[in-house]
Amino acid sequence: MFAAREAWRAGLWAPRHWAGNIAAGVIVGVVALPLAMAFAIASGVKPEQGLYTSIVAGVVVSLFGGSRVQIAGPTGAFIVILAGIVAEHGVVGLQLATLMAGLILCAFGLARLGGVIRYIPLPVILGFTAGIGIIIWVGQWQPFFGLPAVQGHFFHEKLWFLLRNLPALDPVTTAFGFGSLALVLLPRKVDVLRRIPGPLLALVVATAVQGLFQFPQLATIGSTFGELPRGLPLPHWPGGGLDQIVPLIGPAFTIALLGAIESLLSAVVADSMAGTRHNSNAELFGQGLANVLTPLFGGIAATGAIARTATSIRNGGTAPLAGVVHAVVLVLVLLALAPLARNIPLATLASILFVVAWNMSEAHRVVRLVRHAPRADAVILCLTLLLTVFADLVVAVNIGIVLSVLHFLRRMASSVDVAPMAIPDGAHGKEGVRALQVRGPLFFAAVESLREAFRSESSPVLVLCLDQTPFADATALQALDDEIAAARTRGTRVILCGADARIRAKLSRMGTLSRLGAGDFQPDLAAALEAADGPDPKAA
């Protein structure tokens, strides 16, 4: 169910809800203004493209997403991915990859894969988000300190270049950077300013100072990118042809995967704050539709923005109207205030991204998990973080998930127990009957336990009880079939009992039941012991 329709059914489009949602939309629009430009510049594109993204995605996701309080736009999590795509494929390649990612997200939603995305483990999520935060922080040293253009391809090369050139920082640019950083953080410390967004305060003050004094060595939006255009461009094909599609498949899937994770995380946070319940499949479809449309208007990749969504909820946003109003505010800014943007210092935008990077890293949660979580989870987190920083986000996430799955399988395998089972006093059964019980799922990682248990038994009759086995896979069933055949060659009769209907059907399809003697598959232990008291049907 789309957010707009769900809000209509809940009566949230009624006039009595307008005031709160309009106020929330105005505040979020003001907060989104500096962030959208900062994220765009850090991603390697023009500042107005961040505004276009916030406008188009803000409307589309608010109306067609799966959460009625979600606010979408460019986010810090995308910076590393988008900057890499721009460096390799150009802006046109980025927009084509974004469009392709939108189609992939729509397909995810239509295939109802929203629930699957949520199975990514917390250590992996914390690891790659903290790694992205570190990359963003280091990546903003150049505009913050007024350093030369960064050289190097890998993170360690860029970091070493910045450290070597740090003594050559520009004093005026650095002063603007630290002054802006103080202004961004000031509202958190001063009660009178608490209602003013820190990024907006820094943006207004720094822009006014530069407009008054015109420091020639200070890089600004105007000196770097020129004037911001007024208004939203008409939809158009971004460019590029079919020959660019294949090289962009990998980047498109990366954008789609990260967008899915970020949007669903934001929707979960919104649910906890607003008491709502999002539809994960509709959310993926709405995010996909937004990413199909934003490149047609000159925008870049977008997803649910946790900070802007939380700001909307805290200020009374309860319906998609807040997201639409936030987009309208940005359109009005482009129409009326675009000429003033030429004096916005890039050092100020870098200071805003410093705070974004710190918030993204969630250092307190990372430290807490490393200190108190199981050792394997702490190792997976640290490895994912390091791979994100020094290798590649996709590599980091893939390896993190694979290691998490392998660790889970090891724990599951260790929980499977194939142990001797006591035969009740007074039960039927001739001498030499032994019983084993499988406790836990019988799957491929538990095959070795099953084989060891079988090969340690040499009694004439072996009863295998499966009443505590919830499921079994083909690998384990094939191993069981092999061990039954091997036991028969050793002169041991095997009787199975206690398996539920699903496992019995699988045993039948594998041919195991047909290879057992008649009566060697019983419903419970008592019946199996009675069958053991009789003659061996295979021997007969």
TrEMBL record:
It is a multi-pass membrane protein. Its main location: membrane. It is found in: Membrane. It comes from Castellaniella daejeonensis. The keyword Protein biosynthesis does not apply. Residues 431-532 form the STAS domain. The chain crosses the membrane at residues 18-39, 51-71, 77-107, 119-138, 168-186, 198-225, 245-269, 289-307, 344-360, 380-406. This is SulP family inorganic anion transporter. PROSITE patterns: STAS. Pfam families: STAS, Sulfate_transp. Keywords: Membrane, Transmembrane, Transmembrane helix.
